[in-house]
Amino acid sequence: MTSTLQARDLLMDRAQGALTGLAVGDAMGLPGDRWPHARLRSKYGWIDQLLPARTGDRTRRAGHVSIGTLEAIAVAEALRDGGGRATEDRIVERMDALGDRPRRPVHVARFAPLGIVHSSLDLDALIDDIVISAAPHHLSNAAVAAAALVAGVVTSALDAPVGATGAVFLPAHLEIGFRAAEIGLGHGSPVAAPSVIQRSLLAREIAMNAESDVSFLQHLYDVIGTTPAATEVVPAAVGLLVRGEGVPFQVATLAANLGGACTAIGALATAMAGAINGLSVLPPDPVATVRTVNGIEPGELARELAELRH
């Protein structure tokens, strides 16, 4: 009985870590989002805490999250309302509530909650729901693969046995992510795009071989790229995950100092790290700030999704 309760508590901690980590990683990237890496370094030096948006945008204070996190919350709510199943009607209804739909691209972060509600034993079902959860948009096969990689890492982490935490298990979780990405390539509209798997492998190599965090970030920025394209944000997130050894706030801090689409990249990287190590290792202060500033409860929502895991 004790073992069963321990496993359940761990599942809940990891689920909460995934969705809360996504929000914290997003918020950490706020001051430098869309800035070139060199400009970010020149202005801020090294970011290691939540900061407000840069001068000129007073509407976004420290802890504010981007539309990517709000999309993830919306998908999570639709999944909860659907008993753990994605339906196009519920997804569209939740996305409509966010407004500005015609001009808003699909953010990869919206698919991370699917890794909470789906077991890693049925990756095909996971990817089917990724396609549905893009509604009302239609994804390219490259975008499906990118989303599947992130959700695959999340679901693998949640399925890991008690005690299977830390950097030593990263390769196993990434392998499930790569497997999901391979399946994902068979869905969506075929496009000419680089391989998200090969780019992620390159990002992992950069992370493992860099002499310092500063040189790592520069190399990642120069070689992998940090535009909002799914084939860049996901590999960059993998690099951050590996360099930060799966420690959520360490990963979020690295993302905040990257530049480019660092809110999106930070959200993805910290969601994966949070799933691996759980909410319990995230510092409570930034978690509380993100919840209060945005009026969201990602931890509670994640618990509800974990109850519906299938």
UniProtKB/TrEMBL annotation:
Coiled coil region boundaries: none
Pfam families listed in its UniProt record: ADP_ribosyl_GH (PF03747)
Cofactor(s) this protein requires: Mg(2+)
Keywords: Hydrolase, Magnesium, Metal-binding
InterPro entries registered for this protein in UniProt: ADP-ribosylglycohydrolase, Ribosyl_crysJ1, Ribosyl_crysJ1_sf
Cofactor binding note: Binds 2 magnesium ions per subunit.
Record carries keyword Magnesium: yes
Family from the record: Belongs to the ADP-ribosylglycohydrolase family.
PANTHER family in the record: ADP-RIBOSYLGLYCOHYDROLASE, ADP-RIBOSYLHYDROLASE ARH3
Name by which UniProt lists this protein: ADP-ribosylglycohydrolase
